[in-house]
Amino acid sequence: MTRTDFAAARDRFAEWGVDAEAAMARLAAIPISVHCWQGDDVIGFEGITAGSGGGIQATGNHPGRARTPAELRADLDFAYANIPGTHRLNLHASYLDSDETPARDELEYRHFEPWVAWAKENGHGLDFNPTFFGHPNADDNLTLSHPDRAIRDFWIRHGERCREIAARFGQELGSPCVNNNWVPDGYKDIPVDRMAARMRLEESLDRMFAVPFDRAHLLDAVESKLFGLGVEACTVGSHEFYFGYATRKGTLLCLDMGHFHPTENIADKLSAVSLSVDEMLLHVSRPMRWDSDHVILLNDDILAMAQELVFADLLGRTHIGLDFFDATIARTTAWVIGTRNMQKALLRALLLPADLLKRTERELNFTDRLILTEELKDMPHAVIWEEFCHRQDVPAGRALLNTLNGYQASVANRNQE
Ligand code: RNT
Ligand code: ZN
């Protein structure tokens, strides 16, 4: 690509009243919260090798899985170096970096200090998640809604410890830490007392969230789900449950793209939810037939969602997190391609003439709306993207292929015993 290519593309956008420079500047300022768990198939560093549990599953056995926090950080460093912009890391509580082996309800900030040091050094904000799965106390796929009070109390304590840790992350890094709560709770077969389960979940959450924290340090989020493996009949924390909870209690609502019926898209939900909830968290994912968490593609779902964020002016109160895990391909490549796809989708949205498009709809001119949305698909977005990568000093095209494969070759001999 030459400078002339870029200048020509920029002029074509300008003909539509779109400022490509401004679009790139906005994109550069949008942090994506990259999820640690793509790097090691959701296993974590507690020494439990049983796998993730809770109805979520990374499938595949590609060589190179990170086995230690140091390896995971090295992989992340590589990934970030190939993603334009400055981004956050989304950690799960099971990813502690410590010689100690604390129980989940004994976790403390010090068990995560190396992550904070690394984040400070690299300018990454940190987000956090209690880990309510992959643990003997979650074997029934019941945690915060478990009928046994002792088990509920254990998970409430875990949630409390995680809020303390997350708040400290936010304080240390000078950027609020989004602490997202997803519990696997549900029933394989048709329950007869959904109400009791939901009341227990609500009560546990209330206790967990009882201590107030400064919103400059900690933002609590809750994540709903439709169903999971082993909990096909009922999920206690359904969309209605958490939408209501977040609205009433003032937490963030996390919308995961894989957690709805297959023909629903959260692109349609964002504007609706945003009228009741102040801030939202996204888990950008790609469900295939079920909540399969495939690496996100630059497909219609992602494009529609990004367009909603831009057109409805929701970027300022939406935290964009990723949630996919594929172990059949190079894990660092999955991070890089998935995150770049989220950014490409945002860039395309930022390069649309929003006012012009909105006007056609206001004027009920659906014909022009159709002409414009379809014609604009052929605009030279790729040229702007390549220029953006170039300015941010990250590779694109064939250079990216070589870089990604070169790194994978360097980790492929990691022994997975
Ligand atoms: C599970 C949820 C949840 C997890 C992560 C690992 O269905 O999407 O967000 O994927 O917490
Ligand atoms: Zn999720």
Spell out the blueprint of helices and strands.
Layout: H1 3-15, H2 20-28, E1 32-35, H3 69-81, E2 88-92, H4 113-122, E3 126-129, H5 149-173, E4 177-181, E5 186-187, H6 194-208, E6 218-223, E7 234-235, H7 239-249, E8 252-256, H8 266-274, E9 280-284, E10 286-288, E11 290-294, H9 300-311, E12 318-322, H10 331-350, H11 354-362, H12 366-375, H13 381-391, H14 397-411
Parallel strand pairs: 1-2, 1-12, 2-3, 4-6, 6-8, 8-9, 9-12
Antiparallel strand pairs: 5-7, 10-11
Helical coverage, percent range: 40-55%
Number of strands: 12
General form: globular
- How many helices does DSSP assign? 14
Let me know the largest β-sheet.
Answer: 8 strands, parallel
CATH topology descriptor: TIM Barrel
Low-confidence stretches: none
Query: In the CATH hierarchy, what is the superfamily?
Result: Divalent-metal-dependent TIM barrel enzymes
Helix and strand string, N-terminal first?
HHEHEHEHEEHEEHEHEEEHEHHHHH
> What is the averaged pLDDT score?
96
Give your account of this protein's structure:
The protein has 417 residues and is of the alpha/beta class. It has one domain: Divalent-metal-dependent TIM barrel enzymes (TIM Barrel). Helices cover 44% and strands 12% of the residues. The protein is built from 14 helices and 12 strands. The strands form 3 sheets. It has an 8-stranded parallel sheet. Helix 4 links the parallel strand 2 and strand 3. The protein is globular. The model has no long low-confidence stretch (mean pLDDT 96). The structure holds L-rhamnitol (RNT) and zinc ion (ZN).
